[in-house]
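Q: Okay, next protein. This is Poly-gamma-glutamate synthase PgsB from Pseudarthrobacter polychromogenes. I've checked the sequence twice, so it should be correct. Can you predict the 3D structure?
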Amino acid sequence: MSASEVGLLVLAAVTLALIIYWKYTASVHHRRLEQLDVRIHVNGIRGKSSVTRLVAGVLREGGFITVAKTTGSAARVIGTTGEETPIRRLGAATIIEQVDIVRDHVRHGVEALVIECMAVRPQYQQYAQDYMVRSDITIITNVREDHQEEMGETLEEIADSMARTIPSNGVLITAEDRDGIRERLRRTAEERGSSTLYADASIVRDEDMRGFGHIEFKSNVAVGLAVAEYLGISRDKAITGMWKTVPDVGVVRLKTYDVLGKKITWVPMFAANDRESVILALKQLQTTHAESSSVIGILNNRQDRGRRAELFGAMVPNDLSGYLDKVVTMGAYEDAVTSMMTAGGFPRERILNLGDTVRPSLDQMLEAIAGLVEGDHGVLIGMVNIHTEQAEMLIHYFSECDGDDGVDELAASREPHRAPLAMLRLRAAQHAIASAAPRSRNVA
């Protein structure tokens, strides 16, 4: 036998061994998935991480022993008690991570898995659904213009890409509010034998939103309620479970500070820098936190983000004037942005320049901002960009005000009041037994 023939035999043997190993690991993975009563795959352009957390909270409070995995601003595994564990990666994130999560965390007794979709390219999304998650419920939060280089240039193409994660003979839940796009998703679901549930944000009451200590969106909460309805979990339990949920690291938290005798709620919304996200956030903020308050928006413009400065200069008079009482400019392009706002009809007396044309000290900024607040309470909203001299001074100031009270998400996930209802009852029973034990011994 020649050396080349030996080499071919070795190659064939290695290939066969790899095929056998792949089939074995796939079989083990699929058996783990099949032990679950509920498998939920969360896809969409905006809100995937928040929805993953909210839905897992709904399931835990509804009595399902649930594991969740979110990518988000910081990748986390959320265990059956709600306690979070960071995901450590040696290299770049890949969708194979989903298999590892199932292997390491779907143990005997786990009943539900909620997992955020990691895939972007359409073929990877389909592979993730058909082989890695095999969900019976797929959530598509919404369809927005993003990742066009992988998913397509139009909303229809992006919707078709994400529709590859819709299950066969399952259910699609979506909060997509464009009738045409939602109908497109529904048709794909129907072709796969799946039904469609619309998570309508209008069913979410303002009082449902007041239990969150951060900006949450009614559309996300509506998805949690739709899951609850489908699985027979009561509305009250669903809302309670969502309130208990620790939010993603990247959410906008709301904290109120005393600034020169004024109560100012600081809303660092710098990461929301597209039109649709900003309008949604301001609308939600208005319904929950801005009543009887002066609302001050900061347009914080970086020198290297001229197009974004132009976008927001046009948005203030056209889209945001109903939400903002005053506007403060910081960073670059102050004269140009101010001219755009006034040309669009936003009154000059409602604009204050505190950026590179003024270069105020921190004390001067705080005094000026407090002076804009009519009454006792104001809401100060940072927008557009983070990194300018003035914005960084403000961020540092409010961070210093927090001191040791800053949020540690991992520690927050272990707080007893966030535990699911079943665990709280178990702990209460254990406490009662422990308390009764000494008395029993004394009687004896």
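A: Here is a summary of the prediction. The first strand starts at residue 38 and ends at 43. Confidence is low (pLDDT under 50) at residues 439-444.
Q: Noted. On to the next one.
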